[in-house]
Amino acid sequence: MPKALGFAAQAADKPLEYFEFERRDPTANDVEIEIAYCGVCHSDLHQARNEWGGTVFPCVPGHEIVGKVTRVGSKVTKYKVGDTVGVGCMVDSCRTCANCEEGYEQYCENGFVGTYNGEDKHSGGVTFGGYSNRITVDQDFVLKVSDKLDLAGVAPLLCAGITTYSPLRHWGVREGHKVGVVGLGGLGHMAVKLAKAMGAEVILFTTSPSKVDDAKRLGADHVVISKDDEQMKAWRNSLDFILNTVAAPHDLDAYLTLLRLNGTMTLVGVPAESHPSPAVYNLIAKRRSLAGSLIGGIAETQEMLDFCAEHGITSDIEMIAMDDINEAYERMLKSDVKYRFVIDMATLKQK
Ligand code: NAP
Ligand code: ZN
Ligand code: ZN
Questions:
Q1: Angle of helix 186-197 relative to helix 298-311, nearest 10 degrees?
Q2: Which member of 47, 86, 126, 142 lies 3.0 to 4.6 Å from 56 by CB, making a disulfide possible if both were Cys?
Q3: How big is the chain by its Cα radius of gyration, in Å?
Q4: Rounded mean pLDDT of 299-320?
């Protein structure tokens, strides 16, 4: 079996460090990929530090993977050696439950197999993610990546892109809608770009006054400093939809009251501690909804990648070396990400 190099957390309170392990040789339906870039998602940090519970150590995070196909199994028809491909948050699912059959693998009744910290059907152990030089994945969970786009900027689309695209589509965001995006981090900056490309008027809510100019450059029509009550009040009862990407517990009422009649706020951030419960009155007063959304299905991920290729959308990235990952996590905790760290896998060397 091929040896893989990677970076792993050995325990919740330990920094990530160099780690060697084995990947499987491609089985009939597998695609082997040499990883060129891997994005750094806030979920990687949550899981490496066991903030959601259930992390199996050592943990090799990373689910925003792009690279080139190096080998394919005998039954692989979708990809050939040399193709540029991507892998997101899932590497398998049961494929037979009602949700899988409808293309909602992320909501698989039997639980999808996460790209890392998932139950590896092949080894019986745990899956290892994209902070690594190579990965072997079933062709049905591999995505086609357009050569038209900058490859490093495509990597974050595999999680941040689809996690924001899917709810924007599900709740029918389109021209004429006023759409709020809360938090300008990895997910938030993709939400701004995507909602804008779907024709919406975009209002970005940030805790960081230093991000105002960037938010406008990224496509926001209006930027609101969420700590400023007067600025918040100006948007009461006006928004059709809000996508909330914040990774920390906060007051949801501050945003629910900005929704107009029948408006929805969808949470995609998954803080380690729950948000304080919102006031019921704010929901019933305008028949507002509070919802959640998890990544997106495989077909929808391909649709999102194609949409991004068509509209020339990639992530704004800060490229880092593999050795810089722990510092990147600390900066992410300070909301100091412009707007996604991406690991250049060429910097991962055998030690
Ligand atoms: P990120 O890059 O760290 O961005 C989060 C942003 O939230 C920050 O940049 C900051 O933006 C804002 N923020 C942070 N702390 C805050 C606080 N205390 N109060 C208000 N705003 C705060 O993280 P990400 O990678 O985008 O991920 C965001 C969350 O989504 C994480 O919890 C992650 O696990 C989750 N996630 C969920 C899914 C899903 O399928 N549902 C998929 C991927 C990730 P400002 O500086 O603009 O305020
Ligand atoms: Zn993610
Ligand atoms: Zn299923």
A1: 70
A2: 126
A3: 20
A4: 98
> What is the model's pTM?
0.98
Is any atom of ligand 1 closer than 6 Å to the C-beta of 270? yes
Q: Atom of ligand 1 at shortest distance to CA of 215? A: 47
For 3-57, the pLDDT digits (tens) are 999 999 999 999 999 999 999 999 999 999 999 999 999 999 999 999 999 999 9
Ligand 1 contact via 157 beta carbon (within 6 Å): no
Cβ neighbours around 210 below 10 Å, total: 10
Q: How many Cβ atoms sit within 10 Å of the Cβ of residue 120? A: 16
Please answer whether residues 300 and 307 qualify as being in contact, where contact means their C-beta atoms are separated by less than 8 angstroms: no
| pLDDT of amino acid 98 | 98
Residues 97-151: pLDDT tens digits?
999 999 999 999 999 999 999 999 999 999 999 999 999 999 999 999 999 899 9
Q: Are 288 and 282 in contact (CB under 8 A)?
A: yes
Q: Quick one: tokens of 135?
A: 């990965």
pLDDT value of residue 326:
98
What pairing do the DSSP bridges indicate for beta strands 259-267 and 289-292?
parallel
Question: Ligand 2 center to residue 28 CA distance, Å?
Answer: 28
Pairwise CA distance, residues 290 & 215, whole Å: 25
Cβ(41) – ligand 1 distance below 6 Å: yes
Pocket test of ligand 1: the residue of 41, 115, 251 to mutate, having most ligand atoms within 8 Å of its CB, is 41
Q: Which helix (H) or strand (E) holds 299?
A: helix 298-311
Under 8 Å between Cβ of 17 and 7: yes
The strand pairing partners of 144, in sequence order, are 85
| DSSP letters spanning 176-232 | T-EEEEE--SHHHHHHHHHHHHTT-EEEEEES-GGGHHHHHHHT-SEEEETT-HHHH
Q: Is 183 in the pocket of ligand 1 (CB under 6 A)?
A: yes
Ligand nearest to the CA of 183: 1
Share of the chain above pLDDT 90, in %: 99
Indicate the residue type of 98: A
